[in-house]
Amino acid sequence: MSTDADGKIELEYELDDRPPWPKSILLGVQHVAVMIVPATAVAFIVAGAVGLGAADTAYVVQMVLLFSGLATIVQAYTVGPVGARLPIVMGTSFTFVGAATSIGVDYGLGAVFGAILVTGFAVEGLIGWQFDRIQPFFPPLVTGLVVIVIGLYLVPVGVDYAAGGVGAADYGAVHNIGLALLVLSVAVVLNVFTTGVTRLLSVLVGIGVGYAVAVALGLVDFGPVASAAPFAVPRPGAFGFAFEPIAVVTFAFLFLVSAMETVGDMSGVTAAEGRNPTDEEFRGGLFTDGLLSSLGAAFAAFPVTSFSQNVGIVNFTGVMSRHVVGVAGVVLAVLGLSPKVGAAVATIPSAVFGGAVVLMAGMVAASGARLLFLHVDLDRRNMVVVAVSLGLGLGVTMRPEALQELPRAARTFFGEPVIVTALTALLLNTFAPGEQSPLFDVPSAETPADGRGRSQPGED
């Protein structure tokens, strides 16, 4: 996809554009198709670990979809100061899986939802409220690195899906790899070699072709659709609430990570326009993360946060319309009210989604790289920040056993690649003299005497 001189990609639909309804619906469904499996996977993993039955598991999945949809709608259209008015699709992040599982096993799901209820808006609301003060600490150098590591961190997740899903009996089977490659190939060919609606819907078409082939091969089980209820009503306090100090502290740290991810994802979206988000957009987006996570916990939904796969779709298709994402939010909310519809979507094999997730993860990382290239002078000082931040962040992902001698809480905290990358970049950028530092307004050692680095986008 071409890039203009000011760093914008060639957008088919800009932020406030309204595509025709048929196209908007299909584009919205495409967003849902890419994120629905990873969004609900957290619920399935935690429910299995704590021993929930089929009915309770289905209810938790239902609530995740419902509040993901409501949060997505708020991000697109806002409610007062809550919402960014950006095409941000919301879902449950894998950031919370480990803590929700261990706390759920040790203290029960009541402690999990109690901690989310307390810390969600308390942490992210405070960050959003004071973001104009802390924004100087998150220049493009830091946010770009966060976007890159989010994308790179998602690549193994996508590959696991492409292989059939972790723990699957046919993990790595030829038919799984073949389905994933088919979806990936169809999406890339349509996006690169066609124009119009086929390019815009390239990911959805790829998933559709892969699903049709999976049905033909007998890899799809429609049994759960018949047994699912057509409609279910949310129940407040379905698993009760408990307020364990260790659970509250753990989720407070994780919401800090969630805020960093959201800052990175929002930067990845607005990078399509060659800019960083405004203070108001950052504030509204973070408010949505925290408030909807707390509200969702009251009904047994896990925390919702921005979804990086969908940032990749925006950059891959060139469709930045927030109204398309609003449609996706409505679809998610409807799925959350109808377990039968959700069960039908869940019949799509993991390998089919895997092909799309691998593609989207790569696009997320690429959008983060574009933020760096467009807005950061990659001199010696900044290259050191990039090298150390990505080296440590990817290091704890690839070799988590290196932290095995640390206390459990430290392993949980420092085992998160987004935490390590973001904190390293934040500390190095803050205390190392240079133009990106909020403490030093001086040119770096390699900057020419006129105080300018290489020309900014649009300059000669």
UniProtKB/TrEMBL annotation:
Q: Name the Gene Ontology molecular function terms of this record.
A: nucleobase transmembrane transporter activity
Q: Which UniProt keywords apply?
A: Cell membrane, Membrane, Transmembrane, Transmembrane helix, Transport
Subcellular location(s): the record lists: Cell membrane
Q: Which InterPro entries match?
A: NCS2 (IPR006043), UacT-like (IPR017588), Xan_ur_permease (IPR006042)
Q: What is its main location?
A: membrane
Report one GO cellular component.
plasma membrane
What is this protein called in UniProt? Uracil-xanthine permease family protein
